[in-house]
Amino acid sequence: MKYKVRPYLASLLFAGVAALPLALVQRLGKICGWILFIVPGRYKRRAKTNLAHAFPNLPPAALKQSLLAVGQLFLEMPYWWVRRDDRALNKQVHCNDWPLFEQALARGNGVILLSPHCGCFELLGPVYSSHYPSTVLFRPPRKVWLQDWIIKMRTRKQLTMAPANKSGVRTVVKTLLRGHTVGILPDQVPVSGEGVWAPFFGKPAYTMTLVQRLQKLTGATIFILGAERNPVGQGYKMHVKEMTSPLPDDPTEAATIINTEMENVIRMMPTQYLWGYNRYRQPREKPA
């Protein structure tokens, strides 16, 4: 019974957040971020360490701003998961680069979208899929009911969710071979054996090799994206960069290039990255 009640309650909570105006959601998110800032905790300590390592010259107030942004993202997530009005969504996202995606898709080899956990990355899937069919790879939670619920909440008419496992990777490959689009957040730490050590802001970070293997297999065009959050209630700016050269065959060289591209996006909005994520940890062992 509890596994039926939990998704219902979660959906009810998310619907309540989505019913509010975006500006109010972002202001409430700032309050959540303020609590995260004033209450001691592991996330705050790690965010402080990682931010200071990557941007040692930023003022101390940058940590506070980054945690306020975390709070905003926390509430923006249910807002964009529940909302299904593509027309209203596109009014909130400023982007002049849609012809670039159309040209890349016309080549027939598929498109790979890469974004760090920066800005409001949660709206990239919904806004892109409002124009073109796409599949997003995501790391599934351990609880089965939560995984099923997330897939249900995030799936849209032209947006498919693929868990980061063998089945999900097969779905991603099939999507690219059909000439469609896949989205990946490459700054997550993969399991042992599925990545290489490459610099991320000058420090070794275990980085996935999946992107390089997918491009080598399909010849897909890679785009680097970022969804920068504007001041409260003023929407978002979508940054787009097409990678015109294919990734090198060497996995470490390819991972280094990808990490550099992620850094470039983060430098545009350094206080909007999830600095509390343990990016430099040792990879977990692959499940049997």
UniProtKB/TrEMBL annotation:
Origin: domain of life: Bacteria
Keywords noted in UniProt: Acyltransferase, Cell inner membrane, Cell membrane, Membrane, Transferase
Database matches in InterPro entries: LipA_acyltrans (IPR004960)
Keyword Acyltransferase set for record: yes
Subcellular location: Cell inner membrane
One Pfam family recorded for the sequence: Lip_A_acyltrans
PANTHER family recorded: LIPID A BIOSYNTHESIS LAUROYL ACYLTRANSFERASE, PHOSPHATIDYLINOSITOL MANNOSIDE ACYLTRANSFERASE
Protein name in the entry: Lauroyl acyltransferase
Source lineage: Bacteria, Pseudomonadati, Pseudomonadota, Betaproteobacteria, Burkholderiales
